[in-house]
Automatic annotation (TrEMBL):
The keyword Lyase applies. The lineage of its organism: Bacteria, Bacillati, Actinomycetota, Actinomycetes, Pseudonocardiales. One of its GO terms (molecular function) is lyase activity. Its cofactor is Mg(2+). InterPro entries: Aldolase/citrate-lyase_domain, Citrate_lyase_beta/mcl1/mcl2, Pyrv/PenolPyrv_kinase-like_dom, Pyrv_kinase-like_dom_sf. It holds the Pfam family HpcH_HpaI. Keywords: Lyase, Magnesium, Metal-binding. This is HpcH/HpaI aldolase/citrate lyase family protein. Residues 32-194 form the HpcH/HpaI aldolase/citrate lyase domain.
Amino acid sequence: MRSPKDFFAPLAVGAPQPPRQIPVRPSRMIHFFDPGNEKMAAKVPDIAKKTDVLLGNLEDAVRADRKEAARAGLVSIAKATDFGRTQLWTRVNSLDSPWVLDDLITLVTEIGDKLDVIMVPKVEGAQDIHYVDRLLAQLEARAGLTKPLLVHAILETASGVANVEEIAGASPRMQGISLGPADLAASRRMKTTRVGGGHPGYLVRTDPVGDDLNEGRTTYQQDLWHYTVARMVDACAMNGILPYYGPFGDIRDVVACEDQFRNAFLLGCVGAWSLHPVQIDIAKKVFSPSPADVAWARRVIAEMGDGTGAVMIDGKMQDDASVKQCRVVVELADELAATDPELAAAYDAATKETQS
Ligand SMILES: CC(=O)SCCNC(=O)CCNC(=O)[C@H](O)C(C)(C)COP(=O)(O)OP(=O)(O)OC[C@H]1O[C@@H](n2cnc3c(N)ncnc32)[C@H](O)[C@@H]1OP(=O)(O)O
Ligand SMILES: CC(=O)C(=O)O
Ligand SMILES: [Mg+2]
């Protein structure tokens, strides 16, 4: 552990000052693409216009014999594209792989000024973040970068979950954590064969009514990811970084995808991954507070005055704690509305309606 006094000191001579605050920019969807896939790469300039984060993926889902092509593709896309307000992230290969060292050296040297966040897969504990932290500082110094790169960890090993609090606080570069349900399931020896989402066998059943154990007993499917997402959210919140749900692999099932994303949103996540263009709008809808919720939250804040005491609004008690929740919703809505005129208009229209 670094001494708290040294926590914000650069880890290499000439490296930029590490960040003291994680920049809060919209990141409702982290859209994955394979930079070595020409069809996907061709869509990047258009997709950039409608996503908060574009991520050039170099790790799983890129074939072993296409790793170099993906890395080179990301370098040329980053150099050739104006991403506007959209952030550019990458997911490098895992720290035990033969590719990660070249991923980091090439990307920081060639396009370190274009990248915002480096996503590190299969993080097991703080030691993995410390390794990346020092290496990034050395590479930033050599490349003459003035803005520090941020680091995002994927929570996808049993060890990572057991150490999630220390991972979240391992470096001032830590920007956030995403749930990695596929590798995590394998690491835990869960018996699922899916990428995220629920499973019909994971359920609770109501008690029997009489002697017949089968008749009239409703079952309720449970969320396999509740415990992990909740732990991840707490670890992130206590360290001032951002939690994300990860991938939902059943691309066709847009309904269950929306449900899984919404569970994560309600529990505190700020975004999710989109693996296919069809998931971009789902994430945008789910991770933007609804106009009705924003209107209600604005009303509670207005009626609560200085934010202390208790009032009754439409039969519901509001006090210091509920007004704090409302502020979370309104702050997020204001941040998103600042760059999205359509959303801003929807929020204002709903607010006017509640006032009339
Ligand atoms: C567990 C994990 O690690 S999850 C993260 C790793 N996985 C990924 O990154 C997967 C990313 N997504 C993909 O590889 C693809 O979306 C797949 C393989 C799931 C499906 O691809 P396809 O079979 O081509 O899907 P589909 O035919 O519906 O695609 C329609 C079009 O969208 C394009 N497209 C598909 N996914 C993407 C994407 N993520 N970004 C940009 N374009 C895409 C296709 O190239 C295709 O283009 P075309 O119309 O010019 O032919
Ligand atoms: C997200 C990811 O990498 C996984 O689920 O394994
Ligand atoms: Mg994984």
